[in-house]
């Protein structure tokens, strides 16, 4: 499948139930800020859109995901849920 090389602006992407949080295909782009509550699982990430409505999961967002889980608290770009 062809993916555009044009990188879009940041957007929220909501993780699908029981999907691997490190895979772009596990997320669906959201048109609104997500409503996530809890501290244990990644619910949504705010990162660049690859131009095909998929998130770009780079080293920076991966580090923020790890830090959010380690601290059991959401961060500016990672929302957690129970």
Write up this protein.
The structure is a single chain. Strands 2-1-3-4 form a four-stranded antiparallel beta sheet, covered by helices on one side. The longest helix has 13 residues, at 59-71. Helices cover 16% and strands 27% of the residues. By secondary structure, the chain is of the alpha+beta class. The chain contains one helix and four strands; from the N terminus they run βββαβ.
In short:
This protein is 16% helix and 27% strand. The chain has 82 residues and is of the alpha+beta class.
CA radius of gyration:
12 Å
SSE string, helix = H, strand = E? EEEHE
Q: Main beta sheet: strand number and arrangement?
A: 4 strands, antiparallel
Structural class: alpha+beta
Overall average residue pLDDT: 90
Provide key terms for this protein.
82 residues; alpha+beta; globular
Architecture blueprint of SSEs:
Layout (H helix, E strand, L loop, with lengths): L9 E6 L11 E4 L10 E8 L10 H13 L6 E4 L1
Antiparallel strand pairs: 1-2, 1-3, 3-4
